[in-house]
Specification:
- It is a single chain.
- This protein is of the alpha/beta class.
- Strand 6 and strand 7 form a beta hairpin.
- It is about 35% helix and about 25% strand.
- The protein binds cytidine-5'-triphosphate.
- Cytidine-5'-triphosphate (CTP) binds near residues 303 and 326.
């Protein structure tokens, strides 16, 4: 695919280098178009070396090639990172006074802006209006991350991490349309990762969930405008998604407590976590020694089913019209295939949607791609095509939107 990476003039321009690398390493053809002020932060030679292509900022180089029209026309995706307040203002008003803004005017492909600026600038009515205009024009403008900005100040305005911009960019290439803002004003709780049930201070019972699917779910929901709380169990060192509140837990019991607390007043709960069904009855205060004995057996007791608890609480009228999404990781066995087990699970759990993944043989766990089926309580069944975990998340949210009260 042909990707244009536009770079605005902000300190976060250095992060565009990692983004360019990600695109080239995954086989894309990349043209970097910085603004003149972006080159105050990162040199032209760096972008040329990373992309393997020439870099210009103005419309008067290579005039016979008409780059100010051609680059935009030929692009499959334009990503602007960092998108400064000034660059978004120029783009929103249709200016074409450098190669990047001219390219934005001629591009008919998906366009993704990854903003980076100080909180005051992000929250200024002028910027809010420009972001709304860009979205109305069909561009996807990411929610910035919160956290430390240049200097001592913190707040929303930090450039989302390159991994996150790359994930969203890949999603736009897969979807080939803008990300809808259909979850604006909604509160969504997502659980992710595996729980760990301690045996002693150094050992636990755990599972192979990486948290990637749940994180993708939280990320895409936030970028569709939702206020997201992510209840994260053990994950493989994933970056917290931009504009998402993350609550870290360890055990199934802690996850249950956190999910219950944050579900009050929420519009939807998505239980992507792999919650342990059992925990050891006894947790040793000191490390269990091997000693001279045969290994002891571990006595287990059942954990409560968080998802079933939510469904019950909703039936009892405690959670309003909360929409509830469950996940099922199935292998199929002598009693039935993956879908047979999944249909039974949907009926048993009583949630509104069940995302079904076939697991085993390197599928679903830890990897970056996923596929499966989406079963609805109304009997609808939809296959979820193979693609990134963000794509699968996006398809689930497409189905969830109409179910929200
Ligand atoms: N789940 C939960 N609390 C538990 C166990 C599971 O909330 N104690 C949720 C998971 O987050 C997931 C769904 O239930 O959304 C299905 O989990 P799964 O482990 O596949 O189902 P089980 O109920 O454990 O069924 P089985 O053991 O028969 O596969």
């Amino acid at each position: 695919m042909r990707i244009v990476v536009g770079v605005g003039g902000g300190i976060a321009a250095y992060k565009a280098c990692s983004l360019v690398r990600k695109f080239t390493e995954t086989g894309h053809h990349v043209r970097v178009i910085p603004t003149e002020s972006a080159l105050q932060f990162v040199g032209k030679a760096t972008f040329e070396a990373l992309s393997g292509n020439p870099v210009q900022t103005g419309v008067f180089a290579d005039v016979p090639e008409v780059p100010h029209v051609r680059l935009g026309q030929e692009a499959d995706l334009v990503v602007i990172a960092p998108a400064t307040a000034d660059l978004m203002a120029r783009a929103a008003s249709g200016r074409a006074d450098d190669l990047l803004t001219a390219t934005l005017l001629t591009a008919r492909c998906p366009v993704l802006f990854a903003p980076a600026m100080h909180t005051e600038m992000w929250e200024h009515p002028a910027t809010i209006a420009n972001v709304a205009t860009l979205r109305a024009h069909g561009s996807t403008v990411m929610e910035p991350a919160s956290g430390r900005l240049t200097g001592a100040d913190t707040g929303p305005g930090r450039l989302p991490e390159p991994e996150e911009i790359f994930a969203l960019a890949s999603l736009l290439l897969e979807r080939s349309d803008a990300l809808p803002r259909d979850l604006e004003g909604r509160r969504v709780v997502v659980s992710a990762g595996g729980t760990r049930e301690p045996l002693d201070p150094v050992r636990f019972l755990g599972n192979r969930s990486s948290g990637k699917q749940g994180y993708a779910m939280a990320r895409v929901a936030a970028q569709r405008g939702a206020q997201v709380t992510l209840i994260a169990g053990n994950t493989i060192g994933l970056e917290p998604p931009a504009a998402v509140e993350v609550v870290h837990v360890t055990t199934a019991e802690q996850m249950g407590t956190a999910v219950d607390k944050h579900s009050v007043g929420a519009d939807a709960v998505i239980m992507a976590a792999a919650v342990a069904d059992f925990r050891p009855v006894n947790v040793a205060a000191a490390k269990i020694k091997k000693g001279a004995h045969e290994p002891n057996s571990i006595e287990l007791t059942k954990n409560r089913d968080i998802l079933a608890g939510l469904v019950q609480a909703r039936r009892d009228g405690q959670l309003g019209g909360l929409a509830i999404v469950g996940f099922a990781a199935e292998t199929g066995d002598e009693h039935g295939d993956v879908l047979t087990h999944a249909r039974a699970k949907l009926a048993r759990k009583g949630c509104d949607l069940l995302v079904v993944n076939a697991v085993g043989e390197g599928k679903a766990f830890e990897v970056d791609n996923n596929d499966g089926w989406l079963l609805g309580a109304d009997g609808t069944e939809q296959s979820l095509d193979h693609g990134s975990k963000a794509l699968l998340a996006s398809r689930v949210l497409d189905a969830l939107g109409p179910l929200l009260r």
